[in-house]
Design brief:
The chain is mainly alpha-helical and 166 residues long. The chain has helices spanning 11-18, 22-30, 50-62, 67-75, 85-94, 96-112, 127-130, 149-158; strands at residues 8-9, 37-38, 44-47. InterPro entries: DNA-bd_dom_put_sf (IPR009061), MerR-type_HTH_dom (IPR000551), MerR_fam (IPR047057), Redox-sen_tscrpt-act_SoxR (IPR010211), Tscrpt_reg_MerR_DNA-bd (IPR015358).
């Protein structure tokens, strides 16, 4: 005979099942990403669907979606409910552009780790070809050659004739 899972979980049960430390659960709660009720003994009790919320938070974090964005997405759900299948499709579609940008940046990072990334260090002989005199620094901070497609397109416009992209 199988027993019915309890509808509410203690913080320890949530931590054990979700793989998230109790301190992180408190942090999520403090940030308004999850919520609990208090028992008469002032102990937290989480609705079981909190596990799904935490799963979404963890997946989003793993792919680099900021908690602020996750919270904004949760806030769009009616009655603050936990994302169901349709909700998840809606949320993930909204994150597609952001994910595409991150995938693009990661692919560029992987492909150009040994090449000049336009960070201003000028430490590689390739920097002379890719970022002579740190001219990419005039277009903004950070590794300019790893940033968005728009930056990449802009860079194409200003590339020295005769140089090729690796
Ligand atoms: S790698 Fe830093 S400017 Fe080229």
């Amino acid at each position: 005979m199988t027993s019915t899972p309890p509808p509410e979980l203690t913080v320890g049960q949530v931590a054990a099942r979700s793989g998230v430390a109790v301190s992180a659960l408190h942090f999520y709660e403090q940030k308004g990403l999850i919520s609990s009720r208090r028992t008469s003994g002032n102990q937290r009790r989480y609705p079981r669907e909190t596990l799904r919320r935490i799963a979404v938070i963890r997946v989003a974090q793993r792919v680099g979606i900021p908690l602020r964005v996750v919270k904004e997405a949760f806030a769009t759900l009616p009655d603050g409910r936990t994302p169901d299948r349709d909700d998840w499709a809606h949320l993930s579609a909204a994150w597609c552009d952001e994910l595409d940008t991150r995938i693009d940046q990661l692919a560029r990072l992987r492909n150009h780790l040994a090449d000049c990334i336009g960070c201003g260090c000028l430490s590689l002989d390739r920097c002379l070809l890719r970022n002579r005199d740190d001219r990419l620094g005039a277009r903004g901070s950070g590794p300019r050659r790893l940033f968005t497609r728009a930056v990449r397109a802009e860079e194409d416009e200003h590339r020295d004739p005769g140089t090729t992209r690796s």
